[in-house]
Amino acid sequence: MKKLVNFRLILFIVLSLCLGISTAYFFLIKNLFWAVTIPSIFFTSILLYAFLFSDKTNRKVSLVFSAIFLAVFLIGGLSFDIRINSYRSNNLNDHYYFVKGKIESIRETEYGSYAVVSNAEVYGNVEKELDYKIALYVYGDNILDVGDRVEFYALLLDKDLFYEGRFSAYDLERNVKYTATVNASDIGIRDNSPNLFQRVRLKIRETLSIGLDEEEFSIAYAMMTGEDEYIPPETLSSYRYAGVAHIFAVSGLHVGFVATALGWLFTKLRMKRLIKAVVITLILIFYSGVCGFSASSIRATVMSAVLLFSSVRGHKYDKYVSISLSAIIVLLISPMQLFCAGFQLSFMIVLGMFLLSNPMRKLLRFLPYKISSSLGAVLSAQLVGFPICLALFGEFSTIAIIANLLFIPIVGAVFIFLFVCTILGGLLGIETIALFLPNLILKGINYLITAFDLQTFMVGGFTMGGFIVFYYLAVIVSSGFINVKGVLRYTIAGMFIVFCALGSVFTTLKEYNRSTAIVCGDKTVCATLIDTPRNTALIVSGAEYNFSTSRLKRLQRYVKDNCIEALFLMGDDIDANRFLTVMNGTFSFKNVYYFGERDFSMEIAVLKSFPSIQIFAISDGERLNFYGDEYFYSLSGNLISANVNGKKIGVFSCFGNDIVDYANGISKYDLLIAEDMAESIFALYNPTEKIVYRKRSGQMDAQINGNVEFLLG
After folding, report:
1. For the chain, what percent of residues have pLDDT higher than 90?
2. How distant, in Å, are the alpha carbons of 9, 261, 271, 305, 594 from that of 265?
3. Contacts by 196-201 with C-beta closer than 8 Å and gap 24+?
4. Which runs of E-coded beta strand occur in 493-613?
5. In terms of Cα–Cα distance, which of 411, 403, 406, 501 is closest to 458?
6. CA angle 599, 602, 604 (to 5 degrees)
């Protein structure tokens, strides 16, 4: 085993921990194939390692290592199960409570404020101090801030382990278990007592807000603390399109800059190496706390500490030991981090840089050493990161390599300069003077990033599916981690790439050619997207005036070129012009249909705002044909029927009058989608499959299960 693989004990311990957590997760979601396959491969590998790939001289060592791997595997699975069982057992069963707690964080949204309440005590159906936090949605004029001790009366709803079809890893990782919605005027504030980390973060916010212009403040605050809540969405999108949005997640980039600057300062002060290592490590831990102890900041802090203390002891720095140790610490604190995008991107990209930087530098050896090293590191990060971005976000930036190569050195200098100026400005009360130059520099950087339409450099529309495994096998083989030399190494890596490419083409074509009904529902909007290779139709069953766009935006991954041929509006309370205005930029619409008599004023308003759209009033029974797919209204506009590939779909309206005569509905549907009076409708029509929009006991719902898909062929 040691001859085949460049063995690192701690790296294999991390792998065992991740596999144990993953196995427990697959048992949770009842995916028995992977729940059985992962431990089977793991145990087989341990046996082969212990008995076949070790000789008599190191058999005892191999057995000890095997026992360690097995123990760590079990620890990973048990820690995950313990967290899951604890989360499940702390339900409050959706009752009203009088709550006392402390605002841990707060951010503005388009519909009000979102706060996290910690150290909460509840009085009502039960009286106790909560082990978990409350996600508090505040509407009205917000006067809350971090550190406020508050009290309010509200309905506390239990969060589920799954929401929108996805495992709620982010909530579990943050220990958020309950949700409540309250008017700002109904919240009492007793006092304000932020902890030390919060005080420092608030001081940074105050200093930056005084010394910088509004948009530059939002950029600087995100760079220093990892909080991007103040960045305008369009600005944040521009940084993502450029592939440099990682500067807003406090990671090795930021911690490394701080550690380097402190190391230079303490060296000038002739501080002893051991004291210097201890002091810098403590400062980095404190800075990680100011940034909320994010996974990326913990990883970077641990890796920096390993580097510092290795230097003190005169040992060679082992990058695999440092990243493995940091992963172990993060996952033991919270095994849910394994399923969070931040952890996956942070650790995989850094590990990829470790694996590929040297091979990439050797390929670029015709360039000067500094250029080949920098370019090799950036290329390594992009090569390892883009499949994860594709899987998580459905797209990745092709300009990221150039942007990072040019941008990161500048950001490093700016970050240190900003860091020093913020400290001086805050301590001396000269914020405007101290931050004058950083304000100009950030203004210039922001202009360069936002001045161009970088969305054209985004690539998506395809998927690797499970074949992503072959891609990362190619990365591991080509890195030299597996002891295969010369032509054979690149032949094997090339074979894995070919398997990945062929598999990706097969998976993408399969996705592209299938027809699907996707049901999307939450408290404010309910809609069904019918997507076929021929056309795409969106049926909006109901939408409140201030409906949330986030759920509908997640339908983008199903819509080719973000173009919807037909938009069907149901109910009398959907303002077509407002709906189109709110969704403008997310989708483009060709034809809009609404039920009833023509509304000339509404049509004129739509045509003025969207001259390329055609809008029609449709009556019951009037059949519309789109490339062989048929749609028509019935039941006074409360039902839309669709015929797609021989499958019959019925979609009922929501948010409207519950008292509708459904007695004439005797058609047989393959899929029926409803909300109001769902049980009565399903009983009357007896469809083959049924879906409700919002959470409802005993029914498949689109609120908890996400954008529920129904295959139409």
Report:
1. 32
2. 36, 6, 9, 17, 68
3. 196/289, 197/286, 197/289, 197/290, 197/292, 198/104, 198/146, 198/147, 199/147, 200/290, 201/146, 201/225, 201/227, 201/290
4. 516-521, 525-531, 536-543, 563-569, 588-595
5. 403
6. 105
What percent of the chain is predicted at pLDDT more than 70? Answer: 95
Please give the helix or strand (H or E) that residue 401 lies within, else none: helix 400-428
- Residue 482 DSSP one-character state: B
One-letter amino acid identity for 483? N
Based on the number of CB atoms within 10 Å of its own CB, is 558 exposed (0-12), middle (13-18) or buried (19 or more)? middle
- Identify the helix (H) or strand (E) that includes residue 203: helix 196-211
Q: Kindly state the average pLDDT of the residues 134-147.
A: 88
What is the amino acid identity at position 458?
M
155 SS3 class: strand
**Alpha carbons 664 and 673: distance in angstroms, whole number:** 17
Q: Which residue has the higher pLDDT, 465 or 423?
A: 423
CB 687 within 8 A of CB 649: no
Cα-flanking dihedrals φ and ψ of residue 675, to 5°?
A: -145, -75
Instruction: Determine the Cα–Cα distance for residues 95 and 141; give it in Å rounded to an integer.
Output: 26
Query: What's the CA gap between 353 and 367, in Å, rounded?
Result: 19
Place of tokens 């007592």: 193
Q: Which two tokens stand for residue 360?
A: 């990439």
Name residue, tokens 């082992």.
Answer: 318
Amino acid at 323: I
Tell me the C-alpha distance between 466 and 391, whole Å. Answer: 10
Residue 2: what pLDDT?
Answer: 46
CA distance 397 to 515: 28
Please tell me the pTM assigned to this model.
0.79
Res. 567 pLDDT band, cuts 50 70 90: very high
C-alpha pair distances (Å), 38 with each of 67, 301, 528: 17, 31, 36
Residue (of 496, 502, 534) closest to 515 by Cα position = 534
Interval 590-602: pLDDT, tens: 999 999 888 888 8
CA distances from 503 to 354, 460, 462 (A): 27, 16, 11
More confident residue, 558 or 202: 202
Containing H/E element for 684? helix 678-685
Distance between CA atoms of 431 and 421, rounded to whole angstroms? 8
Question: What HEC string does 594-624 produce?
Answer: EECCCCHHHHHHHHHHCCCCEEEEECCCCCE
Say how far apart CA 450 and CA 237 lie, in whole Å. Answer: 9
Q: Which pLDDT score is estimated for 540?
A: 93
**Burial group, residue 214, by CB count within 10 angstroms (0-12, 13-18, 19+):** exposed
Indicate whether 425 pLDDT > 90: yes
CB neighbour class for 341 (10 Å; exposed up to 12, middle 13-18, buried from 19): middle
What band does 110 get if pLDDT is binned at 50, 70 and 90?
low
What pLDDT score was predicted for residue 1?
43
pLDDT at 57 over 70: no
